[in-house]
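Section 5: illustrative case.
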């Protein structure tokens, strides 16, 4: 008898299921696979899992990134290397001790900055 498992590649459930059993995570019906099909399904599930982990890591990295509080640009650096509390934005020229952490808030600042910049020109 060929192995039966959840056919959904986005589901993390890899255990064998009974013929009429449904996946406990995504409620998909169990499907019978030949050995080569089963291997490719497990590979596809592994790829999806790695992509999901990479996306979550990227989101965490974006939340740790520093952004300019004036224009929302991520191009902000230490002004003086031995005084890391003073920041300088390479985009708008902001200099100060305050920086923004959080990509969603920075995106709102960036949008507002671009709108006001368009109005002044």
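Designed sequence:
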């Amino acid at each position: 008898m060929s192995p039966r498992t959840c056919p959904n590649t986005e589901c993390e459930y890899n255990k064998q299921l009974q013929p009429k059993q449904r996946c406990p995570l995504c409620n998909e019906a169990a499907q019978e696979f030949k050995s080569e099909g089963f291997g490719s399904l497990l590979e596809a599930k592994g790829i999806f899992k790695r992509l999901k982990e990479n996306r979550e890591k990227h989101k965490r990295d974006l939340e740790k990134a520093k952004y300019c509080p004036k224009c929302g640009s991520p191009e902000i650096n230490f002004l003086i290397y031995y005084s890391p509390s003073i920041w300088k934005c390479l985009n708008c020229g902001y200099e100060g001790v305050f920086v923004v952490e959080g990509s969603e808030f920075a995106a709102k600042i960036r949008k507002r900055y671009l709108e006001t910049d368009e109005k002044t020109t």
